[in-house]
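Forum: Protein Structure Q&A
Topic: Joint prediction for protein chains with partners

I've read a bunch of threads here and the consensus seems to be that you should model interacting components together rather than docking separate models afterwards. I'd like to see that in practice. Below is the full input, 593 residues plus whatever partners are listed. Could one of the regulars post the assembled result?
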Amino acid sequence: MNRPVHAAARTPTPIAVTLVVAAWAIVGLFVVVPLASVFREAFSGGVGAWWAALAHDPDTRHAIWLSLTVAPLAVVFNTLFGVAAAWLVARFRFPGRSLLITLFDLPFSVSPVVAGLALVLIFGRQGLLGPTLAALGWKVIFSWPGLVLATTFVTLPLVVRELLPVMESIGPEEEMAAVSLGANGWQVFTRVTLPTIRWALLHGVVLANARAVGEFGAVYVVSGHIAGATDTMPLRVEKLFQEYRQPASMAVASVLAGLALVTLVAKFVIERRLGAESRERQAIRAPDDPVVEAARP
Amino acid sequence: MIALAHDTHRPPADAPGARPLPPRRRRRAVLPGFGLSAAITSLVVTTLVILPLAVLVLRAASLGPAGFAAAAWTPRARAAYAVSLSAAGIAAAVSSLLGLVVAWVLARIDAPGGRILDALVDVPLALPTAVAGLVYSALYVKTGWLGQWLVPLGIHGAYSFLGIVLVLVFVSLPFAVRVVQPVIESLDRETEEAARILGAGRSQTFFRVVLPALLPAVVTGFALSLARALGEYGSVVFISGNMPFRTEIAPVLIVARLEEFAYAEATAIAVVLLGLSVSLLVTVNALQQRLAANSQ
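Posted by a regular:
Agreed with the consensus. Here's the joint model:
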């Protein structure tokens, strides 16, 4: 930490101690205890029982497989969309730009259940496109394409939101220089833009993936909740819970919680890289600033 | 990346005349890719966001004012709105208050394990909400880890209104912390020191100097938490018991109606919820612009 150390901060005051204890109590009660409890309950019958609950139940196996298919697909769509949208909004000025940015955020504030219902109203059997899709023999709702659509909707803002601030802070100068030196669009993107946004992009992808794997409400509505067919892992957790099979439910939940922990570690590592790069950029921009000079590697 | 690869087939844009789709005046239009990125963005936003939500609103509108009111304003739906709004409101308030404490410690105090504390705050963003709901209900039932002490005291954290509030605090806590934390970091300590030197007490300094500066961020965090909590479904469905008129939130009622194939009623309730979310989003955006303007 390069934070300036104040005289008052060195000797902990009673208020500081109280606040630290309070913060740990808050995070402990709301986060640490539940998280620890997932693993405690999942392994209460031993590792063998945990493994049996996961591997010997065909519906659970299918749910794991389905989650591992749907989430990456949604993340790929999101990455494509996120890069295109960030390029559009950060590099061009056009009418309706700020409205567009607001629309990017909309999926965050719309209830996932409402989003799922909206998709049913379009792609469902009685939906707008229902008859057309039925004629073509495509099934979207109560099938995996619906799951991918719903998951993509819910995670839509995550990649754009990560890329936008970074691209805006870097500015278009380097890309314009590349264009003036004769680079084509693909070259500008892969050689100039991508290297500067890669950590932000990875950050967005990691967050989108975590959200995609864990999505429940939207997926619940569009999936029809068919065991062995459209149940993803979070839906499987719910079904086992409803069937009073708490240990099996906790076993699936523990896999999801494990994934969440991996996500957090990845996020932590990526954020350190991001922080280092933004400090480097500032150092290049303002080399006279003594504080920034000191922060240079 | 397939879509972007399409750019390679273009002639090199070495002359300004070769640039694709110049969107008028600005020099920025030198950069390529406006047409392609606009096409992808508008395709996705239209098919995935605008079209579904428009269809939802149109379906509800086709019920007519009387039909809409009959579908969206039943006693059970009104009770669900009340439960949703009060639980989300209480949870957002609790989150804002607790979030302020946590953010203060992270920003100002070199606490033992500060880094770990910081990382733990993000757990609710990464942990699937279904897992949170499942484990909270397991913790607070009579035989649970915490429930064995709390239930004898008359505190029922599972299958109750309190349970809804607890999981909503969990899901909204990171928002409350992360909005306030950078603002505390950017606060000028010298102003506080000046206030102290001028004779203000600790609490006076906090309430007169620090809190006014933090208030916009705290309010933004509250609004974000409220938006998140209002729409939450995955965790609540496990812990609330979903008793109509008592612990049934609006999203749960939508799903219940859908499972009865009562599409009209589900749609009408969804539109009410959507209206609430959109107005909250507009409020948050206005607040954030204010916040950005203040910090400059």
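The first helix of chain A runs from residue 7 to 10.
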